[in-house]
TrEMBL record, chains A, B:
Pfam families: Glyco_hydro_31_2nd, Glyco_hydro_31_3rd
Matching NCBIfam families: PRK10426.1 (NF007746)
Single GO BP term: carbohydrate metabolic process
Domain Glycoside hydrolase family 31 TIM barrel: 284-562
Residue ranges constituting the Glycosyl hydrolase family 31 C-terminal domain according to the UniProt record: 573-658
Keyword Signal: no
GO molecular function: carbohydrate binding; hydrolase activity, hydrolyzing O-glycosyl compounds
Protein name stated in the entry: Alpha-glucosidase
Keywords per UniProt: Glycosidase, Hydrolase
PANTHER family per UniProt: SULFOQUINOVOSIDASE
Length: 671, 671
């Protein structure tokens, strides 16, 4: 990249492309002072900001290759920027802050009118971010996430939990532009990326960021490769994952295992059983909740150790559940308190967080002793030694910002977004220390920059058990595509969704459509949902269990192809589920598609995500001949086509000349 | 007032009180550039602002009694402020803008932690404004006005019309502080007054205002007197108003007049009949709407001219309805279009506004020819010559800000808030030109600075037909008290409320409680509501009509007292309905009370505004002995008391030693 002086300012260019332009009439940099108000209620944050000062740094001067920025030529320099070349195509702007009072930073990057922008972590509502702004702050994603729906209204009213389009468990201050560049901001502060303007993007960060990285490449795939190297790649999937579905079951030993055996007897291919209640439950007025004391509950699962051994002999794995909190009334809490492993409040007591009729201490992962203890006592001793092969590493988004003090002395406001990768790293290290990386599968919904390196598998969080636009089945695809662009190769979701509130119930149809999609993701896993008794379950109906059996067998059938994708993920950083445009750059019709995906380079999946439909309209990218898996019909790309879409036959197309054509062609014969 | 230099800045003080303090460490003035986005949908505005620059003017220098303000001592002066003394106690800061690019202005005024603040026009939700911010932009007030209610949710969803606590037909950039000062900003731009901070108030204005006025006084009554002189006082009430209620009836001649005769026959004291459909109706999918072509509909009211004459002989007046728009399909529209009396769009065509299945032209009151024509052709010829004695001068809040151009060449964004007083002035001048000021009673819901001078009577706008916290009966009191402090002496409301949507229906109880309150306001007027057939009406029930009769007789009974209050309003500017604290400054318990009021100095009214209650708790101010009107019980002030509160006996208390004690004591004997 090149830095050039221009009239009244400077420009950063790569070949002919202007990546940054700053002049006194149109400054790219602003600094200021803001006064924020952050209120947390059970993982939902109400955040307001008052901008006290916002100073355009109109005046720039290049001195010894350093850019000095000031309000005007007579006033003091506020920022010094040094350009660090990462490669011929990539640069880092290192920013030095001269006035320590400043706590707000804005940068404008040139935009084109027809430009698209993707990324910002795992976005659930909008894949192309243009036309909206995206606050970046890890939190609960909201229930309904659409202010025009009754469920969002009621969730807002009763739980402050309705959410909006931008709420996500996994934000990240990184975006990819259709102009073939990516931009990443090195900061864990609250940020707000604004893509609403025609001629510029404006990134807001609630500190002066240490640096900003800009990557360019000739193709989107090359850009993904670079980002995946930058943020870290995941280990390959464990071999046992390919064996079939992981059944999410709870309700104690007898219930869980007998239902699994029934599924196996009915032909379901089972890779594992996931009992999130392995550590016990507690009764609250909301219903049953897990008991947050991360060790085997001998009461609920009396023979679990033996059970795990015998399952493993049958090549079936057991998965558990863990979060980065310990409940006050558990056995582990006093031990951790004794060792000062929790974040503390102003009084020096454990900073307790309300999770709904029970309080927890926050394990302080900035304290090396906490990390050691959690790895050793919880993950290694209580989980790995028991024979557990994986777990949901839940939460990570709740770090309060008020009256909470951490071992590393850094303001909780700056550590809030950093928490998910910290939590991921504790899990990853515990596994690695036992030499089990790539053999153990834990999965997380919370994320931030760095998650890529530590978390082997994302899970899309808590969708509603429905087809709703902003919280239903289709949002999982958007989550996979946006996070995939930033180097998260593996993504999956709760089959059937999770959240059932205010009369919203999972139907047989929703469950089965979700199974249809999940067979074309790197991991299949069911979830009973938050209210198992009121929602449709996989074994409630003989047809459904037969359908599940068939789709798990299709998933197994595709093992050779999935392993090929896993190798690509490992070598190139390509996600298993990819936006259409990364393989069809020439076809701009693909740039906004967020409910279809390429499962690898050769298979196009278009999950049905509406109720009561018998056919489905799919866009097939141009300059390719496609084969419809279900009827072997040949179709020229570059058009929308409508195909039959019964349950059990999700719209699926492969490239005619794929090396995997025979494997794909055999899908309809799998039973 | 005194202007003094202090270390690093200056202070404005009155006696010992610091009214403005500016230093380089804690500047009071900020200027900047904002980029707003204003969307209108049927009088509901979605307004967003992006602050591009916000520069603290830290550096101040006093040169020849002028304050020069700049970012720092090396940069150019941005504002020059001259202090103009209005009196010994009152000052005006005249502001000169040196950089024409600036379009945002913020000023901070010192605040005390326990300070209260009132005013900002007619506020419907919160009387004490402390702890919240108040955008000041005339608009529809919203339906429900509470994001936690179903009616607001549905109104937002279907009509963008739910509103919030600060939405009002009548905002005004003026506030009164419990520190015995008032502050007024001379600007019609969008403003946002922020009273959320402990140690300062921050006023935001979307232009550099011409000036800011600060008034001080030793008592709140003196402050009101000053403000009422500053903004203009209203004429006295017409004599005919005292005769009783104005019955709002529509449905054509036969229906309206026969129902009025029935009411009179049942003992209701009637001052007038108000037929808003006098100009005809139109059918829309929403139901019947008025036909916006402001002339007598001979079809709907065939004998209206004769009718008005004969009613007047019986001392009953006829009231009509008018708005500042003309529908495209009416007879007046082509006449006004021919004369270029409408606001225009970019193409030079009439800028049409959608009012819901019909379009209207906006009469451009910045054009002297429009004013003349509306006064002469509509108000004088079509209304006064017909014998009309008053009217609802509806609307005034809808001036669009995009693609609308006015005769005076000023940006519609700056004229939007100016529109209500412009509309009021056209009405007032038309009346004055006929020598009928004080004889004709028109009433408006829309307002802004200057409304005081032109509008003889406020009407509280469109409440819901219920007891809801943010859009029901009690909000009318808040509206009367806040607008009253700023010099609007006369306020009243639609008896029974107006808005019935999404299943919300007016009950007998709501109607009767509203009558109970209205008897203690300067004017009683019923309204059928937006859906007459589905809502309770005054003549639907023999008990209700008897109750209305009794309360209109109580209203008449109080005529001598009300005339006394009207004289006070004329001579001192005191509103008829007053916050308790203006008469009880020593009792700070009164400062937050917004659901009780003093009806003049001597009568305390505490309307019942909840469903299904039989008793009511009232605060009686300290250092006074009170008499309960209904049972003559004597109570020492300075306490909350609970009294029986059946319908027909709204909690009412008078000062024991009032000169009007006999009149008040006789209230229970009125039948």
């Amino acid at each position: 990249m090149e830095l050039n002086q221009i009239n009244g300012g400077f420009q950063l260019t790569q070949n002919e492309q202007v990546l940054l332009s700053h002049t006194n009439r149109s400054p790219a940099f602003f600094v200021g002072i803001g006064k924020e108000k952050i209120e947390i209620y059970r993982g939902n944050f109400a955040i307001e900001d008052t901008i006290v000062e916002r100073i355009p740094l109109k005046h720039s001067k290049i001195i010894n290759n350093e850019i000095h920025l000031a309000y005007d030529e007579l006033t003091a320099t506020q920022l010094i920027i040094r350009l660090d070349s990462l490669s011929l195509q990539d640069s880092k702007l290192i920013i030095e802050q001269l006035d320590s009072q400043l706590n707000r930073f804005w940068i404008r990057l040139p935009a084109q009118e027809d430009e698209k922008v993707w990324g910002c972590g795992e976005q659930m509502s909008y894949f192309n971010l243009r036309g909206r702004h995206f606050p970046l702050w890890t939190s609960e994603p909201g229930v309904g996430r659409d202010k025009n729906t009754e469920i969002t209204f009621l969730s807002d009213k009763y739980n402050k939990a309705g959410g909006d389009y931008y709420h996500t468990n996994y934000p990240q201050p990184t975006f990819v532009s259709s102009q073939h560049y990516a931009c990443h901001v090195n900061s864990t502060a609250y940020a707000d990326f604004d893509f609403r303007n025609t001629d510029y993007h404006e990134l807001q960060i609630w500190e002066i960021p240490k640096s900003i990285e800009i990557y360019t490449a000739l193709s989107f795939l090359d850009l993904i490769e670079k980002l995946s190297l930058r943020f870290g790649r995941q280990p390959k999937l464990p071999e046992w994952i390919y064996n079939g579905v992981i059944l999410g079951l709870k309700g104690g030993e007898e219930n869980s295992f007998s239902r699994m055996e029934n599924a196996i007897a009915k032909g379901v291919s089972v890779a594992g059983i996931w009992c999130e209640d392995w550590a016990g439950i507690r009764q609250t007025s909301f219903g049953k909740r897990l008991f947050w004391d991360w060790k085997w509950s001998k009461k609920r699962y009396p023979n679990l150790d033996e059970k795990i051994k015998s399952l493993r002999e049958r090549n079936i794995r057991f998965l558990a559940y863990v979060s980065p909190y310990l409940c006050e009334d558990g056995e582990l809490y006093p031990l951790a308190k004794e060792k000062n492993l929790f974040a503390i409040n102003k009084q020096g007591d454990v900073a307790l967080v309300d999770f709904g009729e029970f309080n927890c201490g926050v394990l302080d992962f900035t304290n090396p002793e906490t990390r050691e203890w959690v790895k050793k006592e919880i993950i290694q001793k209580n989980m790995l030694d028991l024979g557990v092969s994986g777990w949901m590493a839940d939460f990570g988004e709740y770090l309060p910002t008020n009256d909470l003090y951490l071992h590393n002395g850094i303001d909780a406001k700056l550590m809030h977004n950093a928490w998910p990768p910290l939590w991921a790293s504790v899990n990853a290290e515990a596994v690695a220390e036992r030499g089990l990386t790539g053999e153990i599968m834990f999965f997380m919904r919370a994320g931030f920059t760095g998650t890529q390196k530590f978390c082997p598998m994302l899970w899309a969080g808590d969708q509603c058990v429905d087809f709703s636009r902003h919280d239903g089945l289709n949002t999982v695809i958007c989550g996979a595509l946006s996070s995939g662009l930033l180097g998260n190769a593996y993504h999956h979701s709760d089959i059937g969704g999770y959240t059932s509130l205010f009369g919203n119930r999972r139907t047989k149809e929703v469950f089965e459509r979700w199974v249809d999609m999940a067979a074309f993701t790197p991991m299949m896993r069911t979830h009973e949902g938050n209210r198992p008794d009121e929602n449709f379950q996989f074994d409630q109906d003989v047809n459904t269990i037969a359908h599940l059996a068939k789709m798990t067998n299709i998933y197994r059938h595709l093992t050779p192809y999935l392993k090929h994708l896993v190798n690509e993920a490992s070598e190139k950083g390509y996600p298993v589920q990819r936006p259409l445009f990364v393989h069809f750059e020439h076809d701009e019709n693909t740039y906004d598609i967020q409910d279809q995906y390429m499962y690898g380079a050769d298979l196009l999946v278009s999950p049905v995500h509406k109720q009561g439909v018998g056919e489905w309209t799919v866009y097939l990218p141009a300059q390719e001949t496609w084969i419809n898996v279900w009827n072997q019909q040949e179709i020229q790309g570059g058009q929308y086509i409508t195909v039959p879409a019964p349950i059990g036959q999700p719209p699926l197309f492969y490239r005619k000349n794929s090396q995997w054509a025979d494997l794909f062609a055999a899908i309809p014969r799998v039973s």
